[in-house]
Write a structure and sequence with these properties.
alpha/beta, 2 domains, six-stranded parallel β-sheet, 16% strand, nicotinate phosphoribosyltransferase
Length: 334
Protein backbone atom coordinates (compact mmCIF):
# COMPACT_ATOMS: atom_id res chain seq x y z
CA UNK A 1 0.00 0.00 0.00
CA UNK A 2 1.62 3.29 -1.10
CA UNK A 3 0.07 5.13 1.85
CA UNK A 4 -0.32 8.69 0.62
CA UNK A 5 -3.91 8.85 1.81
CA UNK A 6 -3.09 7.44 5.24
CA UNK A 7 -3.16 10.88 6.77
CA UNK A 8 -5.50 13.58 8.03
CA UNK A 9 -6.77 16.28 5.70
CA UNK A 10 -5.02 19.09 7.53
CA UNK A 11 -1.66 17.42 6.87
CA UNK A 12 -2.39 17.55 3.14
CA UNK A 13 -3.52 21.17 3.39
CA UNK A 14 -0.22 22.15 5.03
CA UNK A 15 1.89 20.03 2.67
CA UNK A 16 0.23 21.58 -0.39
CA UNK A 17 1.07 25.05 0.89
CA UNK A 18 4.67 24.12 1.70
CA UNK A 19 5.18 22.67 -1.78
CA UNK A 20 3.47 25.54 -3.60
CA UNK A 21 5.73 28.04 -1.85
CA UNK A 22 8.92 26.12 -2.39
CA UNK A 23 9.37 25.45 1.33
CA UNK A 24 11.61 22.43 1.01
CA UNK A 25 14.02 22.97 3.87
CA UNK A 26 14.68 20.12 6.26
CA UNK A 27 12.49 19.74 9.32
CA UNK A 28 12.83 17.48 12.35
CA UNK A 29 9.76 16.21 14.14
CA UNK A 30 9.95 14.38 17.47
CA UNK A 31 7.38 11.75 18.48
CA UNK A 32 7.07 11.25 22.23
CA UNK A 33 4.53 10.60 24.98
CA UNK A 34 3.55 13.62 27.04
CA UNK A 35 2.55 11.76 30.18
CA UNK A 36 2.33 8.16 31.31
CA UNK A 37 -1.11 6.60 31.84
CA UNK A 38 -2.18 6.00 35.42
CA UNK A 39 -0.60 2.86 36.91
CA UNK A 40 2.19 2.93 34.33
CA UNK A 41 5.75 3.54 35.44
CA UNK A 42 7.19 2.93 31.98
CA UNK A 43 6.28 2.09 28.41
CA UNK A 44 7.73 -0.43 25.96
CA UNK A 45 8.56 1.06 22.56
CA UNK A 46 6.99 -0.80 19.64
CA UNK A 47 5.70 -0.20 16.13
CA UNK A 48 8.93 0.88 14.46
CA UNK A 49 8.93 -1.89 11.86
CA UNK A 50 5.50 -0.99 10.52
CA UNK A 51 6.43 2.70 10.51
CA UNK A 52 9.50 2.02 8.38
CA UNK A 53 7.50 -0.14 5.97
CA UNK A 54 4.98 2.66 5.51
CA UNK A 55 7.69 5.27 4.98
CA UNK A 56 9.48 3.12 2.42
CA UNK A 57 6.32 2.67 0.36
CA UNK A 58 4.97 6.21 0.72
CA UNK A 59 3.62 7.67 -2.53
CA UNK A 60 0.38 8.68 -4.22
CA UNK A 61 -1.12 6.40 -6.87
CA UNK A 62 -3.14 7.74 -9.78
CA UNK A 63 -6.35 6.61 -8.09
CA UNK A 64 -5.37 8.37 -4.88
CA UNK A 65 -4.60 11.59 -6.75
CA UNK A 66 -8.00 11.41 -8.42
CA UNK A 67 -9.57 11.06 -4.99
CA UNK A 68 -7.71 14.14 -3.77
CA UNK A 69 -8.87 16.04 -6.83
CA UNK A 70 -12.46 15.21 -5.95
CA UNK A 71 -11.80 16.59 -2.48
CA UNK A 72 -10.88 20.00 -3.86
CA UNK A 73 -7.12 19.92 -4.40
CA UNK A 74 -6.16 21.73 -7.63
CA UNK A 75 -3.91 20.50 -10.43
CA UNK A 76 -0.84 22.22 -8.99
CA UNK A 77 -1.26 20.44 -5.64
CA UNK A 78 -1.86 17.10 -7.35
CA UNK A 79 1.24 17.56 -9.48
CA UNK A 80 3.32 18.35 -6.39
CA UNK A 81 1.93 15.33 -4.53
CA UNK A 82 2.55 12.97 -7.46
CA UNK A 83 6.33 13.01 -7.08
CA UNK A 84 6.52 12.86 -3.29
CA UNK A 85 8.49 10.04 -1.75
CA UNK A 86 9.94 9.77 1.72
CA UNK A 87 13.54 10.95 1.53
CA UNK A 88 14.89 11.52 4.97
CA UNK A 89 16.22 9.99 8.15
CA UNK A 90 14.53 8.21 11.02
CA UNK A 91 15.96 7.91 14.50
CA UNK A 92 14.10 5.61 16.88
CA UNK A 93 14.36 3.70 20.10
CA UNK A 94 14.67 -0.02 19.22
CA UNK A 95 11.49 -2.00 19.69
CA UNK A 96 11.23 -3.69 23.07
CA UNK A 97 13.16 -0.98 24.93
CA UNK A 98 11.77 0.80 28.00
CA UNK A 99 10.83 4.44 27.44
CA UNK A 100 9.40 7.18 29.64
CA UNK A 101 7.32 10.30 29.17
CA UNK A 102 8.87 13.30 27.40
CA UNK A 103 11.51 11.00 25.88
CA UNK A 104 11.71 10.85 22.06
CA UNK A 105 10.56 7.47 20.78
CA UNK A 106 11.02 8.33 17.12
CA UNK A 107 12.32 11.36 15.23
CA UNK A 108 11.95 12.14 11.53
CA UNK A 109 14.21 14.50 9.61
CA UNK A 110 13.07 15.23 6.05
CA UNK A 111 11.81 18.07 3.84
CA UNK A 112 8.97 19.64 5.77
CA UNK A 113 6.12 18.63 3.45
CA UNK A 114 6.82 14.90 3.62
CA UNK A 115 7.78 15.02 7.30
CA UNK A 116 4.43 16.66 7.99
CA UNK A 117 2.40 14.23 5.88
CA UNK A 118 3.58 11.12 7.72
CA UNK A 119 2.63 12.44 11.18
CA UNK A 120 -0.76 10.74 11.39
CA UNK A 121 0.30 7.25 10.37
CA UNK A 122 3.43 7.30 12.58
CA UNK A 123 1.38 8.34 15.59
CA UNK A 124 -1.19 5.67 14.77
CA UNK A 125 1.36 2.86 14.64
CA UNK A 126 3.50 3.87 17.59
CA UNK A 127 0.44 4.49 19.76
CA UNK A 128 -1.16 1.13 18.98
CA UNK A 129 1.93 -1.04 19.25
CA UNK A 130 3.46 0.73 22.26
CA UNK A 131 0.17 0.63 24.16
CA UNK A 132 -0.12 -3.13 23.61
CA UNK A 133 3.54 -3.96 24.24
CA UNK A 134 3.45 -1.98 27.48
CA UNK A 135 0.40 -3.88 28.69
CA UNK A 136 1.97 -7.20 27.70
CA UNK A 137 5.14 -6.34 29.62
CA UNK A 138 3.09 -5.93 32.79
CA UNK A 139 1.82 -9.48 32.39
CA UNK A 140 5.35 -10.75 31.83
CA UNK A 141 6.47 -9.11 35.06
CA UNK A 142 3.45 -10.44 36.98
CA UNK A 143 3.90 -14.02 35.73
CA UNK A 144 7.45 -14.27 37.14
CA UNK A 145 8.63 -16.71 34.49
CA UNK A 146 5.45 -18.68 33.97
CA UNK A 147 4.44 -19.16 30.36
CA UNK A 148 2.03 -16.70 28.79
CA UNK A 149 -0.13 -17.33 25.73
CA UNK A 150 -1.90 -14.49 23.92
CA UNK A 151 -5.62 -15.23 23.39
CA UNK A 152 -6.91 -11.77 22.42
CA UNK A 153 -7.85 -12.10 18.74
CA UNK A 154 -11.63 -12.27 19.20
CA UNK A 155 -11.76 -9.24 21.50
CA UNK A 156 -9.41 -6.79 19.78
CA UNK A 157 -10.67 -3.70 17.99
CA UNK A 158 -10.28 -5.07 14.48
CA UNK A 159 -7.96 -7.30 12.50
CA UNK A 160 -4.94 -4.96 12.49
CA UNK A 161 -5.10 -4.74 16.28
CA UNK A 162 -5.24 -8.55 16.49
CA UNK A 163 -2.01 -8.82 14.51
CA UNK A 164 -0.45 -6.03 16.55
CA UNK A 165 -1.20 -7.61 19.93
CA UNK A 166 0.19 -10.98 18.86
CA UNK A 167 3.42 -9.33 17.73
CA UNK A 168 3.65 -6.97 20.71
CA UNK A 169 3.05 -9.73 23.23
CA UNK A 170 5.82 -11.82 21.69
CA UNK A 171 8.08 -8.80 21.92
CA UNK A 172 7.29 -8.57 25.63
CA UNK A 173 7.97 -12.22 26.39
CA UNK A 174 4.80 -14.23 25.66
CA UNK A 175 5.61 -17.71 24.43
CA UNK A 176 2.76 -18.29 21.97
CA UNK A 177 -0.40 -16.92 20.38
CA UNK A 178 -3.75 -18.46 19.49
CA UNK A 179 -3.83 -16.29 16.35
CA UNK A 180 -2.99 -18.59 13.44
CA UNK A 181 -2.44 -15.80 10.90
CA UNK A 182 -0.14 -13.91 13.26
CA UNK A 183 1.81 -17.08 14.04
CA UNK A 184 2.33 -17.66 10.31
CA UNK A 185 3.13 -14.03 9.52
CA UNK A 186 5.60 -13.44 12.34
CA UNK A 187 7.02 -16.92 12.91
CA UNK A 188 5.45 -17.33 16.35
CA UNK A 189 4.51 -20.50 18.19
CA UNK A 190 0.77 -21.16 18.06
CA UNK A 191 -1.24 -22.68 20.91
CA UNK A 192 -4.84 -23.67 21.54
CA UNK A 193 -6.97 -26.29 23.22
CA UNK A 194 -10.73 -26.64 22.72
CA UNK A 195 -13.90 -24.72 23.54
CA UNK A 196 -16.74 -25.61 25.89
CA UNK A 197 -18.90 -26.14 22.80
CA UNK A 198 -16.69 -29.09 21.83
CA UNK A 199 -17.30 -30.72 25.22
CA UNK A 200 -21.04 -30.04 25.01
CA UNK A 201 -21.24 -31.62 21.55
CA UNK A 202 -20.52 -35.10 22.95
CA UNK A 203 -22.75 -37.21 25.20
CA UNK A 204 -20.21 -37.05 28.01
CA UNK A 205 -17.14 -35.04 28.95
CA UNK A 206 -15.04 -38.19 28.90
CA UNK A 207 -16.08 -39.00 25.35
CA UNK A 208 -15.16 -35.49 24.25
CA UNK A 209 -11.75 -35.77 25.86
CA UNK A 210 -11.12 -39.15 24.30
CA UNK A 211 -12.10 -37.95 20.81
CA UNK A 212 -9.88 -34.89 21.10
CA UNK A 213 -6.91 -36.90 22.35
CA UNK A 214 -7.29 -39.46 19.56
CA UNK A 215 -7.53 -36.76 16.90
CA UNK A 216 -4.89 -34.41 18.32
CA UNK A 217 -2.43 -36.51 20.33
CA UNK A 218 0.12 -33.70 20.39
CA UNK A 219 -2.31 -31.11 21.79
CA UNK A 220 -3.69 -32.84 24.86
CA UNK A 221 -4.52 -30.00 27.20
CA UNK A 222 -8.05 -30.67 28.38
CA UNK A 223 -10.57 -27.90 29.14
CA UNK A 224 -12.01 -29.19 32.41
CA UNK A 225 -14.48 -26.56 33.67
CA UNK A 226 -17.50 -27.12 31.40
CA UNK A 227 -19.50 -28.86 34.14
CA UNK A 228 -17.67 -29.61 37.37
CA UNK A 229 -14.02 -28.60 37.28
CA UNK A 230 -12.50 -31.23 39.52
CA UNK A 231 -14.75 -33.83 37.94
CA UNK A 232 -13.35 -32.68 34.63
CA UNK A 233 -9.81 -33.19 35.94
CA UNK A 234 -10.73 -36.76 36.92
CA UNK A 235 -12.17 -37.35 33.45
CA UNK A 236 -8.95 -36.03 31.90
CA UNK A 237 -6.87 -38.35 34.11
CA UNK A 238 -9.00 -41.33 33.07
CA UNK A 239 -8.53 -40.42 29.39
CA UNK A 240 -4.77 -40.08 29.79
CA UNK A 241 -4.50 -43.45 31.50
CA UNK A 242 -6.94 -45.25 29.17
CA UNK A 243 -5.12 -44.07 26.05
CA UNK A 244 -1.64 -44.28 27.53
CA UNK A 245 -0.95 -40.66 26.59
CA UNK A 246 2.53 -39.27 27.06
CA UNK A 247 4.45 -36.16 26.19
CA UNK A 248 3.14 -32.74 27.11
CA UNK A 249 -0.16 -33.06 28.98
CA UNK A 250 -2.27 -30.63 30.90
CA UNK A 251 -5.60 -29.26 32.02
CA UNK A 252 -7.05 -25.82 31.46
CA UNK A 253 -9.04 -23.91 34.08
CA UNK A 254 -11.18 -21.15 32.58
CA UNK A 255 -13.51 -20.08 35.40
CA UNK A 256 -14.13 -20.17 39.13
CA UNK A 257 -11.71 -19.75 42.02
CA UNK A 258 -8.55 -20.40 40.05
CA UNK A 259 -6.31 -20.60 43.12
CA UNK A 260 -8.41 -23.25 44.86
CA UNK A 261 -9.14 -25.14 41.66
CA UNK A 262 -5.48 -25.17 40.63
CA UNK A 263 -4.53 -26.63 44.00
CA UNK A 264 -7.26 -29.26 43.74
CA UNK A 265 -6.27 -30.12 40.18
CA UNK A 266 -2.60 -30.37 41.13
CA UNK A 267 -3.39 -32.78 43.95
CA UNK A 268 -5.49 -35.02 41.70
CA UNK A 269 -2.88 -35.04 38.94
CA UNK A 270 -0.03 -35.80 41.35
CA UNK A 271 -2.00 -38.58 43.04
CA UNK A 272 -2.54 -40.10 39.59
CA UNK A 273 1.19 -40.08 38.91
CA UNK A 274 0.91 -37.17 36.48
CA UNK A 275 3.31 -34.82 38.21
CA UNK A 276 4.54 -33.62 34.81
CA UNK A 277 1.07 -32.52 33.64
CA UNK A 278 0.75 -28.76 33.55
CA UNK A 279 -2.08 -26.51 34.71
CA UNK A 280 -3.14 -23.72 32.38
CA UNK A 281 -5.34 -20.88 33.70
CA UNK A 282 -7.40 -18.37 31.73
CA UNK A 283 -10.66 -16.46 31.99
CA UNK A 284 -10.43 -12.68 31.58
CA UNK A 285 -7.36 -12.29 33.77
CA UNK A 286 -5.68 -8.93 34.17
CA UNK A 287 -2.06 -8.63 35.25
CA UNK A 288 -2.98 -7.91 38.86
CA UNK A 289 -4.92 -11.17 39.08
CA UNK A 290 -1.99 -13.05 37.55
CA UNK A 291 0.26 -11.41 40.13
CA UNK A 292 -2.05 -12.45 42.97
CA UNK A 293 -2.14 -16.06 41.81
CA UNK A 294 1.62 -16.23 41.45
CA UNK A 295 2.31 -14.60 44.81
CA UNK A 296 -0.23 -16.88 46.51
CA UNK A 297 1.70 -19.88 45.23
CA UNK A 298 -1.13 -21.22 43.06
CA UNK A 299 0.28 -24.18 41.08
CA UNK A 300 -0.41 -22.62 37.69
CA UNK A 301 2.21 -23.28 35.04
CA UNK A 302 0.87 -21.05 32.27
CA UNK A 303 -1.73 -18.35 31.67
CA UNK A 304 -3.92 -17.59 28.67
CA UNK A 305 -4.41 -13.84 28.35
CA UNK A 306 -7.13 -12.32 26.19
CA UNK A 307 -9.50 -9.39 26.52
CA UNK A 308 -7.67 -7.31 29.12
CA UNK A 309 -4.50 -7.43 27.01
CA UNK A 310 -6.13 -7.12 23.60
CA UNK A 311 -7.68 -3.74 24.36
CA UNK A 312 -5.22 -2.69 27.09
CA UNK A 313 -8.32 -2.30 29.21
CA UNK A 314 -6.97 -0.12 32.02
CA UNK A 315 -4.96 2.18 29.71
CA UNK A 316 -6.30 1.91 26.14
CA UNK A 317 -4.16 4.70 24.70
CA UNK A 318 -1.06 6.76 25.29
CA UNK A 319 -0.83 10.54 24.91
CA UNK A 320 1.57 10.47 21.98
CA UNK A 321 2.44 13.64 20.06
CA UNK A 322 4.54 14.59 17.03
CA UNK A 323 6.11 18.00 17.39
CA UNK A 324 8.28 20.15 15.13
CA UNK A 325 11.58 20.71 16.96
CA UNK A 326 13.82 22.07 14.20
CA UNK A 327 13.24 23.73 10.80
CA UNK A 328 15.93 24.86 8.42
CA UNK A 329 18.58 24.54 11.13
CA UNK A 330 16.56 26.65 13.56
CA UNK A 331 15.30 25.11 16.82
CA UNK A 332 11.58 25.63 17.40
CA UNK A 333 9.11 24.67 20.09
CA UNK A 334 5.47 25.24 20.92
Amino acid sequence: MPGGLLTDLYELNMAASYLRRGMDRTATFSLFVRGLPKARGFLVAAGLESCLELLESFSFTGVELEALGSMGFDDRALSDFSTLRFQGEVWAVPEGRIVYSEEPVLEVTAPIAIAQLVETVLLNQITLHTTLASKAARYAIAAEGRRLVEFAFRRTHGLEAAMAVARASALAGFTATSNVEAASRYGLDVAGTMAHSFIESFPTEGEAFRAFAEDHPGRTTFLVDTYDTLGGVRAAIDTIHDLGLGGELGVRLDSGDLDALARGARALLDDAGLTHAHIFASGGLDELEVHELVRAGAPVDAFGIGTQLGVSADAPYIDSVYKLVEFGGRAVMK
